Amino acid sequence: MAYITLTGDLVYLRALEPEDLDLVFKIENDENLWELTSTITPFSRFLLKQYLKNSHRDIFEVKQLRLVICKIDTCEPVGMIDLFDFEPKHSRAGLGILIFDNKERRKGYGAEALELIIKYSFKVLELHQLYANILESNSGSINLFENQGFKPIGLKKDWVRIAGKFQNEYLYQLIK
């Protein structure tokens, strides 16, 4: 692989491609995932095609970077990882990760992808800190981020409404 910082033993992180339209369409229109993104309406193929067409734009311009997590051995996409709310002045960004299929979780893909994006963020983007918002009930994500050194720095009470009920959300932070 050409990108040393984006390649691990199990996975590599790659840029979005036009061929990812069906994958992005499926993920963005999965109503079970909307609670994680505050989405409330579906995305059209046209809109997502425009998004993919512009996904080559620099993180300094669009304040976001979305990468596909692919298995090293098969090149099969297993998830996505995002840097969002990129703030170059304050040298920070938010971080989110999704492994698509429950059967692919707890196999080390998410942990390695998270490790790769942390190294990339600190080494290439020269960020000072990363943060993540994690539902209090999401013990898998809490363990994943804590194992990479993220620390809980606050609890936002009744922050997210899912299925008519409010849930608490932790704010996690990792400082270089």
Q: In what range is the share of β-strand residues?
A: 25-35%
Mean pLDDT equals 88
- The number of distinct β-strands equals 7
- Physical arrangement of strands within the biggest beta sheet: 1-2-3-4-5-7-6
The Rg value, from CA coordinates, equals 16 Å
Shape category: globular
**Helix content bin:** 25-40%
How many separate domains make up the residues? Answer: 1
Q: If helices are DSSP runs of H or I spanning 4 or more residues, what is the number of helices?
A: 6
The CATH topology is given as: Aminopeptidase
Keywords: Transferase
Organism: Leeuwenhoekiella aequorea
Protein name: Diamine N-acetyltransferase
InterPro entries: Acyl_CoA_acyltransferase, GNAT_dom
Explain what this protein looks like in three dimensions:
- GO terms for molecular function: acyltransferase activity, transferring groups other than amino-acyl groups.
- This is Diamine N-acetyltransferase.
- Pfam families: Acetyltransf_3.
- Keywords: Transferase.
- The structure is a single chain.
- This protein has about 180 residues and is α+β, with helices and mostly antiparallel strands.
- It has one domain (about 5-175): 3-Layer(aba) Sandwich (Aminopeptidase).
- Helix content is about 30%, strand content about 35%.
- The protein is built from 6 helices and 7 strands.
- It has helices at about 20-30, 35, 45-55, 60, 110-125, 140-145, and strands spanning about 10-15, 65-70, 75-85, 90-100, 130-135, 150-160, 165-175.
- Strands 1-2-3-4-5-7-6 form a 7-stranded mixed sheet.
- α1 (about 20-30) crosses α3 (about 45-55).
- The longest helix has 15 residues, at about 110-125.
- The chain is globular.
- It starts with 10 loop residues before the first strand and ends with a strand.
